[in-house]
Write a structure and sequence with these properties.
single chain; Spore Coat Polysaccharide Biosynthesis Protein SpsA, Chain A; ten-stranded mixed sheet; two-stranded antiparallel sheet; 10 helices; about 20% strand
């Protein structure tokens, strides 16, 4: 019988974090899942620690990559090694509630066939909300809905949302296969950051829905070290900011309908100019993100043509089997 659920974790020097995440998998009330851990060239024993969990406690495997492939590359490698009909992306600094898998298997069996992504209610360790889906502001910055707000019932309604954070998210494999470009479900050109918005935008353009299901619960400690710091030539924070600047522009170029992009220019242009001025004074290293858009732009525009074609065609999966 095929595996219904695969859980994927990508690590980079995460030895101080991933043990708690894996322990939450060992403690699941339902054992009907496989786990694939991809380590991105860690030097702190992350791979060795994860590999010890496959001594009978967990079903699956730990894969050691010699270099840092980033969030996107690591999860694409895990996708190639996993077999579940549904795939859970799980950060090494996130933990699942003990009944998460049992509830998830029930949820994936009842959702409509055009639901490609399911997002849980993710909490911070102090009980406040971490994420209940993604929202995009008029400057095309992505935010976690409800982050920092009390978990007082206001986010207890199951509903469609624009997208879900990649920290803890369920994706239908058929959806990932459908939206893949050049063989990549997650765009490896992005490396990390804005990859969740990119995936959500591409999925929606192809007719897939994203569903927020609050009965699924997880904790996100937000303690993970950035995967890109291993290759940063300047300060880690400047490198992160540069990558976020680059990826935000690339995702807009790839995914946003032209009409929406043009109508947003009165907000976008002043914002970008103000950001450049701010960074010149406070974080000049982050300005490297702007020229780094150019080498990646040809692929982004190729992907845009693919996305627009998919939006026009509207696939037949909406009437397909679950």
């Amino acid at each position: 019988m095929p595996v219904r659920l695969s859980i994927q974790i990508v690590t980079w020097n995460s030895a101080g974090l991933v043990g708690a995440s894996l322990d939450s998998l060992v403690g699941q009330s339902c054992p009907d899942f496989e786990v694939v851990v991809v380590d991105n060239g860690s030097s702190d024993g992350s791979h060795e620690l994860a590999a010890r969990y496959f001594d009978g406690r967990l079903t699956g495997r730990a894969i050691a990559e010699p270099v840092n492939l980033g969030f996107c590359g690591g999860h694409n490698r895990a996708l190639a090694a996993s077999s579940g009909d549904w795939v859970l992306l799980l950060n090494p600094d996130a933990e699942l509630a003990p009944d998460f898998v049992a509830r998830a298997l029930t949820v994936v069996g009842r959702v409509d066939p055009d639901v490609g992504t399911i997002g849980p209610k993710i909490s911070l360790p102090d009980g406040r909300i971490d994420s209940t889906g993604l929202v995009v502001d008029r400057f095309r910055r992505v935010h976690d809905r409800g982050r920092g707000e009390p978990d007082d019932g206001r986010f207890d309604t199951e509903e469609d949302v624009a997208g879900c954070t990649g920290a803890v998210v369920l994706h239908r494999r058929a959806m990932l296969d459908d939206i893949a470009s050049e063989g990549e479900a997650l765009d490896e050109a992005l490396f990390a950051y804005y990859d969740d918005l990119d995936l959500a935008w591409r999925a929606r353009a192809s007719g897939w829905r994203c569903r927020y299901v609050p009965e699924l619960r997880a904790i996100h400690r937000r303690a993970g070290r950035s995967a890109l710091r291993a290759r940063a030539a300047d300060s880690p924070r400047a490198a992160e900011q540069a990558l976020m600047i680059r990826n935000r522009i690339l995702v807009m170029a790839k995914c946003e309908p032209l009409g929406a992009l043009l109508s947003g220019l009165p907000w976008l242009l002043p914002f970008e100019l103000a950001r450049v001025g701010f960074l010149l004074l406070r974080a000049p290293g982050a300005l490297a993100g702007y020229p780094r858009v150019l080498p990646a732009l040809p692929r982004a525009l190729r992907d845009r043509r693919h996305i627009r074609a998919a939006a026009r065609q509207r696939p037949s999966h909406q009437s397909g089997a679950r």
